Amino acid sequence: MNSLIDKVFKFFHRFIKLVKMIDKKTSMKLVVKSVLSALLISLLIVLIPALVMINMFIYTKLKLLISIFLVILIMGWSFLYYYFYYRLLKIYHPSICDINTKIPQLTESVIVSLFFMILGIVVLSIVF
C-alpha cells in the first residue's frame, strides 16, 4: 500500500514540475489565445452531437439514456479541450515541443472529467 501512495505522490510531483516548466516558457497573451482557440474548436466539435441529442428529448422513454449520453459527451469534451489547448500551445511556443505535455494534458482532463461526472450524477439523481 505504501508503494502505491509513493507512486501517486511521485506522479503528482512530476505533473507539477512539468506544469511549472510549461508556465515558465509561455506568455500570458499566447496562453489566452490558446485557451480561447481551444474552447472554440472543441465547442464546435461537440456542438453538433449535443444539439442532436437535445432534440431527441421528445422521446420520453429515452430521456434517462439520452441524459446519460449527454453527461458522457460533456466528459469527453474536457479531453478534447485539453488536447487542443496543449496542441495550440506547442504551435505558438515551439520551445514547448521538447516537454512531455501528455501527463499534464491527461491529468487535467481526468480531473475536469471527474468533476463533470459527479455534477452529472447529482443533477441526474435530482431530476430522475
What does it look like?
With 128 residues, the protein is mainly α. The chain has one domain (2-127). It is 84% helix and 0% strand. The chain contains four helices and no strands. Helix 2 (28-55) packs antiparallel against helix 3 and helix 3 packs antiparallel against helix 4 (102-127). The model has no long low-confidence stretch (mean pLDDT 92).
Short structural summary:
This protein is mainly alpha-helical and 128 residues long.
Percent of residues in helices: over 70%
| Oligomerization status of the protein chains | single chain
The stretches of 5 or more residues where confidence is low (pLDDT under 50) are none
**Rounded radius of gyration (Å):** 18 Å
Structural class per helix/strand content? Answer: mainly alpha
Figure out the total of helices: 4
Distance between the termini: 39 Å
DSSP strand (E) fraction?
under 5%
Number of domains: 1
Q: Give the topology string: H per helix, E per strand.
A: HHHH
Largest sheet, described in full? none
Mean pLDDT value? 92
What is the molecular shape? flat
What is the count of β-strands?
Answer: 0
Write the layout of secondary structure elements.
Layout: H1 2-25, H2 28-55, H3 63-92, H4 102-127
Helix pairs in contact: 2-3, 3-4
List keywords for this structure.
single chain; 128 residues; mainly alpha; 4 helices
